Every structure is written in structure tokens, then in C-alpha cells.
What we know:
By secondary structure, this protein is mainly beta. 0% of the residues lie in helices and 35% in strands. The chain contains no helices and 8 strands.
Amino acid sequence: MATATKKQKKSGTQLQPLGDRVVLRREESQGKTSGGILLPESAKDRPARGEIVSIGTGRLLDDGTRGSFQVKIGDRVIFSSYAGEVFKVGEEELLLMREDDILAVIED
């Protein structure tokens, strides 16, 4: 199976998630309503969308092989609102979650 690692832009730190986990960057939240009202930080919703930055080696199957991922680096996805662990690498905030927490891939 392919192992993917992507170097982070700002800090130079490499992240390699294990097993069936993925690292993703959350999309920016909207700062303005459709009516043009500016929202303060406390009123903004945290989007449940993001871009895959790095993927692990795959789930370990009963026969000892690794399962393949349904997502790849660069995919834009929708995930569960409370999924994943938030952590910072330099100034960038990233999410680490299982592939099962991803609900859909956004295709353009």
C-alpha cells in the first residue's frame, strides 16, 4: 500500500498518521452572513469540511494485510462535526481522525 507524507508549509514538520488515520486541514469558516453581516469569532460555526493532508498505511485486516484508503491526499471531504483530535503544527491547526469519520468526498 502507498504511504503518503506531506511536508507542512510553515513549520517543516512531517506528519505520518498510523493505520487508518488521516490528517486534514479544516476549511476557513465564513466571516459574513449571506445578508452581509460580519460575524465575530465566537459566532462562527466550525466547518465540517476540509482537505486531506496526509494518510496512514491503512487498516490492518484479519489476514495481516493492509486495507486501502477510499480517500487520497488533496481530496476535499465532509466529516462528522465532533470527529478527530485538533492539534497545532507551528501556527497551523490540523485534525487527526479515522477514515471512518469521513462522510463524503466533495467532487468538483
